[in-house]
Known about the structure:
elongated; 2 domains; five-stranded antiparallel sheet; single chain; binds zinc ion; 7 helices; 36% helix; 8 strands; alpha+beta; CATH 2.40.50.140
Amino acid sequence: MTFSTDAIVLKITKTGESDRLLTLLTRDRGILKAFAKAADRPKNKLHMSTNLFCYGRFTFYEGVKSTKVEECDLNETFFGLQQDITKLALAQYFNELMIESAPVETEANEYLRLLLNSLYFLANDKKNMHILKALFELRLASLIGYMPSLIACAGCGEFETDPMYFNEMTGELYCCNCKGTGAGAYPLEVITAMRHSVFSEFDKMFSLQLSADNIPRFANASEKYLMSVIRRKFRTLDFYKTMINE
Ligand SMILES: [Zn+2]
């Protein structure tokens, strides 16, 4: 049986003499593993369209034991990612997060949209990398059902004080009177940026701007919160951090 869907290559494992085992994020079936037979041979028709970050319309053949890529109508390669090792590292972290958290055997349109847009902004230098990473992390946390409670203070319902306190482990927000044990102080601008990340319409999400001083605080809160939700280490995140700290 064959089927077609939009998909992006998240990971490649070489197997056999010249085959590739792909991990893809697909619009109709979420995370999917499929073999691209002989794709490692330069003359093979799948050679150019089954590289990392290749996005397009894929046709698969679903066998009893495994799924194979039949063909791919390539749409985008995010070529800019290959030009900069730091961008590449961040993009691979996005991919690893998707493999960890996107659904399997069910539609994953919102996940695909988040990833494709983030890679586009990253590959084309359209957005500060730290802001982009934090946006991605908070939006992904919301997609997987862990939207942080950013509407108002968990103690008294106050909407805005400056600073506010955010508990990166529980996702709870507090005003400057309630504070809340274990919550870190954040300037209101950071809380506003976090609210924008999770509540804005998707099309407006990437318009977020933040003063330079507050970008690291926003990045810190977002990463800590997502990690507290997912509860595992990401090799790609560690690698990205060695890149930005150099
Ligand atoms: Zn309060």
